[in-house]
Input
Amino acid sequence: MRIYDEIPTSVLAQFSTLKIEQAPNFRDFRQAFRAKLGRNFVVPANSFDNVKGEFPIGFFIWHLGEETIFTQTITDIFDAKGNCLGNKTLIAYDSFNSINDWIISTRNRPGERNIGFMSAKGNDFQNTNYIFIINDKKQLPHPRGTWITTKNIKEISIYLAVRHSIEATWLNDRDQFLYPNDGWKSDREFQNNCLVFTLFSNSNNIQSQHGTNHWIPFSEEEVGAQDNFESHFMHDFIMGKVKEEKPQQEGTIQDLFTEQEAQTPDGNSFTPTEPLKFSQEAQAVLDAGRDLWRYYHKQAGANPNASYYDIKMHFQGTKTTKSGKVQMNSTSEDATYNALLADLRQSMKLLAAHIEPKVYDYGFLKK
Output
């Protein structure tokens, strides 16, 4: 800021990450640093020696003599060899609320019951690996996120699917996820696609050893389980069998034997009262997942409450790293399991591609 204050008519060159242009923590700086942005371009950070990581480095020319608040620009994109890859719109996001503001609004609904915890950090692609689901926040040394409940499972699934369905790259690394418009509320297919994506995402780390597994989307009969499941919540949710009584309003008489569909504060239903209808892509994921569950439950000593994570760990096993951390192996020696998992992952890729356009349509990301 010294150059801006002491040489106000100069031309300033910036060579850095995109924090000045896009980071939420630089919002106040952008309001104070009022200069016209001239020519600019971005390249991958690892174009430079001794630089690791997948993120953009930008070259920007600022004309300090022309007072303008930066809101957005169209920047040229070059690869490490200097080839032009097109252009991209860089947005400051100062006038937008974040996706985390949106998910916070789903907390503390009447009658909710916890079924898991979602770790959530940051609003951009660089924090994608911090978006995952576990049983309880006690599993994390410094938990940041939100409880998953019987009343916000729909929004949580959308959140996770939106954050993970689009691959993180060096170019979108700093792009911010935003508070959506209301279009998603009436799109049942999108909601159901996101639910299925979340159930079979590699970021769904629910484990039966850490508590009740509420995330089994099948019945015991469908997968040939050797014993009853401890929880049928997810299957009941999918089948529209989770019934709740609507709170009786003062001055009215309610039929106590009539089960009502629960509502969010804005009147949007969060509990289905009939079986969910799935797209072809989502149904393919469910079918592939069911085949994997069936194969697992044929194994001796199969845990009836096993989660997707548990099933993968059963077949892939674990290893201990040099630091003493226990990790799941990346492969299995079971050829049948490998084939079933490959089918499931391929179906998940197709489902992710089906979800992606809606991420932009509903304003979760800007193009």
About this structure: The first strand starts at residue 11 and ends at 16. Residues 212-252+275-356 form one domain. The chain has a mean pLDDT of 92.
